[in-house]
Amino acid sequence: MAKQPKNAISPTRAEDFPEWYQQVIKAADMAENSESRGCMVIKPWGYALWENIQQQLDKRFKQTGHQNAYFPLLIPLSHLEKEAEHAEGFATECAVVTHHRLEAEKQDDGSTKMIPSGKLTEPYVIRPTSETIIGSAFSRWTNSYRDLPLLINQWANVMRWEMRTRLFLRTAEFLWQEGHTAHETKEEAIAETKLIHDIYTEFLTNNLAIPVIPGEKSEVERFPGADRTFTIEAMVQDKKAIQTGTSHFLGQNFSKAQDISFTGRDNTIQHAWTTSWGVSTRLIGTLIMAHSDDDGLICPPRVAPQQIIIIPVTPKEDSREAIIDACEALATTLRHKDFHGEPLRVHVDKRDLAGGAKKWEWVKKGAPIRIEIGPRDLESRKICMQRRDEDAFEKHFMPKETFLRDCIDTLQQIQNEILHRATELRDTNISECGDLTEFERHWSTSDQPGWLTTPWDASNEEEEALSKKYKIAIRCLPLDQQDGEDAQCIKTGQPTKKRAIWARSY
Amino acid sequence: MAKQPKNAISPTRAEDFPEWYQQVIKAADMAENSESRGCMVIKPWGYALWENIQQQLDKRFKQTGHQNAYFPLLIPLSHLEKEAEHAEGFATECAVVTHHRLEAEKQDDGSTKMIPSGKLTEPYVIRPTSETIIGSAFSRWTNSYRDLPLLINQWANVMRWEMRTRLFLRTAEFLWQEGHTAHETKEEAIAETKLIHDIYTEFLTNNLAIPVIPGEKSEVERFPGADRTFTIEAMVQDKKAIQTGTSHFLGQNFSKAQDISFTGRDNTIQHAWTTSWGVSTRLIGTLIMAHSDDDGLICPPRVAPQQIIIIPVTPKEDSREAIIDACEALATTLRHKDFHGEPLRVHVDKRDLAGGAKKWEWVKKGAPIRIEIGPRDLESRKICMQRRDEDAFEKHFMPKETFLRDCIDTLQQIQNEILHRATELRDTNISECGDLTEFERHWSTSDQPGWLTTPWDASNEEEEALSKKYKIAIRCLPLDQQDGEDAQCIKTGQPTKKRAIWARSY
Description:
The structure is a homodimer of 506-residue chains. Chain A is of the alpha+beta class.
């Protein structure tokens, strides 16, 4: 059988990467745009992926002592104003609620038009993030050092009125978790910020198969109101960077603005040290851009909505029922198996549809393993297995028992292979650069330039000038490279131990 | 030891039921009001209860073929206008977004004020419910009868600008699930409406220990835009009714307004038949009012955030470590046990706090079982068990092995006892009434009148007149009493087989 790929997605990655991305989402039936400007509809296949991400992260948060809670969607303007830098950081993208009712107005053509009415004395914004409203609750909850630490997480929707949106990666409304914690000491708060940064790094690497670079943001790129921002940066297949999760050490900035104070062990009144951290549905966009190919989505098994798809092949009516029974029985056995502490997610596709159409649907949806069982397989107790990380025409025939014995290993192999490819992509596309001329040439000579690591110790203004000139940014100061050999900063020429990673980004 | 209850909550239920309710929530640390008008903060103990409700319901929805998805928070006004009755039903309580940015305005005193800016050409409302926005997606997704049924559920926040709010029971923002389905035939859609109504009834009875009355709403009380509304009605301890869940058969009203049409088996273009259904954080308020006592919350074991609390009693420093180790070991053993398919939720309270203070905190939080282990218990391998459904001073001493053997049974006994009490309350406070004079006297002579079942076949106007006069409503036409003996309608005197249940309500 021919080995050339079918390229179920048009255009291919090489032809038009951004359009390929939209077409993968469409082909996998994950999400679509809605009539509400910049807001997406997350369809079942996309949402199930989000549910898996949620559950797996939530478990990690709870294991490290965090509790979930829920805070108001609407933030009074006066709250937002309390932390000026923060307010200004989000001001240009806030949806503002100004009225609390509608009045029906009959039109000349007999139709009804609804007019905003009941003007509010104080408008609200829909939360773009919840530091201010949660800080205000923390202020009520914190009286003594005994009330600390507060370790709270919220799963919620937030809204930022972005001018240009792109499904999953940048939408006006998105889903996320936002952790907010308050601590007695600076050291504890920094340790919390780093703990979460480590959890994010581990989760993206092991579960999403995205080998992120963990690092700290430069002052220019920090979260509005934070003292330090830690980030995990992913490289996707067009070599752009995506910031996939951030963990902020907020110092006492918000606790002073919102009076999160407590009586300390020494009986003095002190301000708490706070942190905040979050990941969002952006993870899904990153996963798509990192792993998928010209046949559609490739979904890492650990978060795949369905890990194994069983397709009954029923050319003849007389063997149809026996084949479907065999498929269902196999599914039931598989669902009792366990992959990383979760029962296997297995689906039997019994729809009345041609086998080829079914197969390609699951290829495009990125299901890690597809199994076919037909009349001859039934007799021979064999199955035909196909792997999404392999060519779509590659087939493995094996006794059912062999598959049952090996399937967990196979899923882990697929997971590892996906991570391996993403790691290779990343490592072959980050280079070191010690010279400004070479640095400037790099960004001008390629449509999809890789990332550059440079010695960097120059000013914010110099960082901003270079960033603007080449449409790049310092993605992070990678954690493991801040204390090496002295080298000359590419801008100032002064010796520095610090390294910065530069890239274009989404 | 004295048997009289401590009455940890002041006022008691008898003294002031509504205020008692607020105080239970405060004592159990479940939720609080926020500075955002009518919006609550759901604190960890309240949110964990919601998470259990979510997971247990979500499992039932998925087992019956429903899939989760997510739709936009903001609904364009033009969408809402499409179904006029629906729009008018929600018009007076819609939060309206009119601007999409803020501008900082420096004040004379040096402070910054944020002013709404960037006026939208078309305003949005924050979803009060999502029939219109989901219907618009269904319209895109439905081409052929092969695309049906669509069985979709969404977990989300919604907003209704209520004038008077009460934690959990009526808040401007609340959390809920809203199911939306589209079907090929009327019969299938009605079957779906009833399936969900049955799931709700079973879940409230078995898991929340709330013996709801399932029934159908009268035309007056129907959801705006529905052809039929099925409801489950709960009685709480002041004998008021709470509508805890509804399932609507929407006929073709929304599918015609939003063009959810498809090519049928006969090749004609047809409109789909749709349903919607939901339960919300209101369930938590109902649970509190149904079960709690003058010592605080009583939480049914199946949804309790923690089912067993283990309190180490450590009067002497030298046995402290051994006692805490024994508590942790017991917790670990218990967490491997299974109650209704979920691992037991067990917490060891190791805080440095007096034993009495700890005990009363868990009484007020409604934890079903409390265990104490002290120095003497350690030697004798005994434990002291207390049950939340019993007097707070009742103690059961038993060998640890006996407790381990029986604890699942004990939890189920507590669950059954809570349901039993609520069922008794309900059954002793619903009476039949066949006479209008008696009916009218009933509502005038008691502060907390029970429910009345009457033969009823009168007009909407007559129903509304009686409802208004006595601040009551027909809660439902109970499903199992619509086809019995003929009796005279209390208003018209005409013979009817129909029965209506009347009550005051939250």
